[in-house]
Amino acid sequence: MRIVLGVGGGIAAYKVASLLRLFTEAGHDVTVIPTEAATRFVGVATWEALSGHPVSNSVFDDVHTVNHVRLGHEAELIVVAPATADLLARAATGQANDLLSNTLLMAGDCPVLMAPAMHTEMWQHPATQANVETLRSRGVTVLEPASGRLTGSDSGPGRLPEPEAIFEAALALAGAPAVPNSPDVPAPDAVPSSPAPGRPLAGLTVTISAGGTREPLDPVRFLGNRSSGKQGVALASAARDAGARVRLLAAHMDVPPPAGVDVIRVETALELRKAALHAAADSDVIIMAAAVADFRPADVAGTKIKKRDDVADPVITLVRNPDILRELVEVRDAASRTQLIVGFAAETGDADGDVLDYADAKLRRKACDLLVVNHVGQDKVFGEDTNSVVILSRTGSEPQEASGSKSDVAAAVIDRISAELSRVVPPA
Q: 339 and 216 in one domain?
């Protein structure tokens, strides 16, 4: 595979030499395009020695080959690491003031992955976040940075993901094996048109919600729930490994999102609704695994609610949040869209019925295709590393049980989704 490896001007550039070696040792043809600032950290000689190709960052070198057009046209994958705040901004605004930015503009349908690295304040700045959202809306995969030690004594989100994680995410995005044309992998002209074994969701877009929504009471307080996001993150990893392009709608989570997925941050149920309805337009599968608040405060105080002896205790009036899952089904059906929708239900039993009684009723109300049911309670599901679920189908097929680690449960859910898709979508 022909890969363009763009290198931004950050201290993390030294790690990208290891990423380059992973690509070349896997048999890929890599052209490195460092920015001028990147060569202050790692010299051109290093990139040329490791890639086996001449290296330049100027559109005026080798003009007869029209490099600024040719490299983008010929690339089958473009990876940018580290993607600095400056580089993200220039890519988002379509600037073309060096060879790398020109190549990004000429990428066409080529998959592009950017691995950010910068200080926490730069990553979290509204301008950077807006640029990231712009790039993701155009189909660019922007990884979440890792958290850890940064330059100097700083620590926090903004660290470049490890080269192995970027390598795996990049090849997953391109649908390429780690070792091309090995005995177990057919040559390019022999690749079957149907999804390869182990990648049953190849070519599909899967949107997954994860974590717990938070409904503000005032500037410092909110109504929330115990969801950690672990199950949703495990589902995102499993769908990515099955070959899908994954979009993660991330509410509050105690764990970082996986590499190789697009992340859209939300906080409230209303924000999640807006993001889910927008994402549904091009999704083949939607998995609503987030713990969405059923209610929100009718009024949000503009200042912190004070506890004072001379004022009566506050009364919080709640209003219903929209039923996002049911709305997604209604929108799909109204548009006659072929789309598999999966809901999650966290249930408890009571004197009027057990968990499955309530789950069956919920499945009928929501009308989704599959419903994954958790029995929740103290020390059950929320925040734990293990899970036990029952998968119910709208078709009335026999309930399916799955248990073990949340990764095990995620794999079972993705396998069931793949089976459901194979029944309604004929192989190409």
A: yes
**Does 184 score more than 50 pLDDT?**
no
Assess whether 209 and 175 both reside in one domain: no
Bond before 82 cis per omega within 30 degrees: yes
Tens digit of pLDDT for each residue in 146-180?
Answer: 877 787 777 788 889 889 989 988 888 887 655 54
Binning pLDDT at 50, 70 and 90, where does residue 239 land? very high
Sign of CA dihedral 148, 149, 150, 153: positive
Reading the block at residue 321, the tokens are 């949040």
Tell me the whole-structure pTM to 2 decimals. Answer: 0.62
Task: Indicate the burial class of 419 (C-beta count within 10 angstroms; 0-12, 13-18, 19 or more).
Answer: exposed
Q: Which of 67, 102, 131, 225 is catalytic?
A: 225
In the three-class reduction of DSSP (H, G, I as helix; E, B as strand; rest coil), residue 69 is classed as helix
Identify whether residues 155 and 6 lie together within a single domain: yes
- Tokens (6 digits) for 328: 């997604």
Active-site residue, 225 included:
yes
Does 8 lie in the same domain as 99? yes
Determine how β-strand 386-393 pairs with β-strand 400-405: antiparallel
Mean pLDDT of the chain: 87
Q: Which residues of 296-329 are buried (b: 16+ CB within 10 A; e: fewer)?
A: bbeeebeeeeeeeeeeeeeeeeeeebebbbbebb
Under 8 Å between Cβ of 344 and 293: no
Instruction: Report the chain's C-alpha Rg in angstroms.
Output: 24
Which residues are paired to 69 by β-bridges? none
If one counts every other C-beta atom within 10 angstroms of the C-beta of residue 396, the result is 8
Supply the pLDDT for residue 65: 65
Separation between Cα atoms, residue 140 and residue 107, nearest integer Å = 11
For residue 420, pLDDT over 50 is answered with: yes
Instruction: For residue 167, give the H/E element and its range.
Output: helix 163-174
* Cα–Cα dist 212/289, whole Å: 9
Residue 146 makes CB contacts below 8 A (sequence gap 6+) with 157, 159, 160, 161, 162, 165, 256
143: domain range? 2-182
Q: Are 209 and 178 within one domain?
A: no
- pLDDT single digits (tens) 299-341: 999 999 988 888 788 899 999 999 999 999 999 999 888 999 9
The Cα 234–Cα 247 span in angstroms is: 13
- Same domain as 280, residue 215: yes
Where does residue 148 fall: left (phi above 0), alpha (psi -120 to 50 degrees), or beta otherwise? Answer: left
